[in-house]
Amino acid sequence: MTSKVNPKTAAARLRRASRLRPRLAIILGSGFRAVAEAMDADAAIPYSKLPGFPKPSVAGHRGEARIGKLGGAPVLVLNGRVHYYEGHSMATVTFPVRVLAAYGVESLLLTNAAGGINPNYRAGDFMLFKDHINLQPDNPLRGPQPKGLERFLDLTQVYDPAHSKKLRTAARAARAKLHAGTYLAVPGPNYETPAEIRAFKKLGADAVGMSTVPEALVARQHGLRVAALSCITNPAAGTSKQKLSHEDVLTTAAQAAKKATGLITNFAQHHD
Ligand code: HPA
Predict the structure, then answer these.
(1) Which one, of 73, 229, 220, lies nearest residue 156 by Cα?
(2) Considering Cα of 24, then 37, then 124, then 31, what sign does the dihedral take?
(3) Residue among 260, 159, 171 at smallest CA distance from 213
(4) Number of compact structural domains in the chain
(5) Which residues, at least 6 apart from 232, have a Cβ–Cβ distance to it below 8 Å?
(6) Pocket residue to mutate for ligand 1, from 117, 136, 191, 206, most atoms within 8 A of Cβ
(7) Most Cβ neighbours (<10 Å): which of 60, 140, 148, 154?
(8) What range defines the domain where residue 266 resides?
(9) Does any domain span residue 120?
(10) Cβ(111) to ligand 1 under 6 A?
(11) Is residue 2 part of a domain?
């Protein structure tokens, strides 16, 4: 934890904003914004009012915390994240997760848009993380050891199997196509070359993206139960004739928004 701002300050600000005490937090990535809109919000706090929170600069990332109910279930939603490729340190990228831990959530659902490497994956499908491969060049756990937290974190099981099971049930109820696979994290911001995607496939990756893994590491360091969900927005580079663009990624995610919202709402209702 190298950020100079204490996560407890922003956590206290969130606690003052609403009497609700959700135990589940959800970070909404590219294209998952509709989930925030589907909430019955008790409080909405812009990131600019949360000390230490970075301001997202990417289209599709809003920058607002919401505390309220989703399908009747209490949730704390962070609508928008910052990425390593925006030039932030890993400490900054993961600061909101330290705030969520200080606030007292027990579980964290991370969402993102990803490119599909597995040939069975179609644009508009979803993938829950069974595991990940981290090819980002920096690590949010690097640096002085935060008091009481593990430095040499065990990653045998980053993604909580009980939560994954609930995601599967939630997807069935929402009629969303959900795969389970390995996410490979790259630094971005460029999309990959076809040769890189061929290499990643050989490494065992099913999907590729530019986020989520740093947040999952920090969440595990704090002992949170973690689940992660990708919306497969495009076939990865070279696996189709299609060229890649952020606009297309957002368009596909928007088309999948209704299913994404149904899936996440069902998950929140079954979270315990
Ligand atoms: N590669 C990396 N990140 C992504 C992609 C991709 O193809 N699609 C959405 N995010």
Answers:
(1) 220
(2) negative
(3) 159
(4) 1
(5) 114, 115, 116, 121, 122, 123, 124, 125, 126, 127, 179, 207
(6) 191
(7) 140
(8) 7-143+150-270
(9) yes
(10) no
(11) no
Task: Characterize 151-171 residue by residue with b for buried, 16 or more Cβ atoms within 10 angstroms of its Cβ, and e for exposed.
Answer: eeeeeeebbbeebbebbeebb
- Is the minimum distance from the CB of 250 to ligand 1 under 6 angstroms? no
Q: Which residues contact 231 (CB under 8 A, 6 or more apart)?
A: 30, 31, 32, 111, 112, 113, 114, 124, 125, 126, 252, 253, 256, 260
Q: Whose CA is nearest to atom 6 of ligand 1?
A: 115
Is any atom of ligand 1 closer than 6 Å to the C-beta of 80? no
pLDDT digits (tens, 9 = 90+) for 15-55: 999 999 999 999 999 778 899 999 999 999 999 999 999 88
Catalytically annotated residue among 61, 163, 179, 271: 61
CATH code, domain carrying 184: 3.40.50.1580
Q: Is residue 123 in contact with ligand 1, taking CB distance under 6 Å?
A: no
Is this prediction's pTM over 0.90?
yes
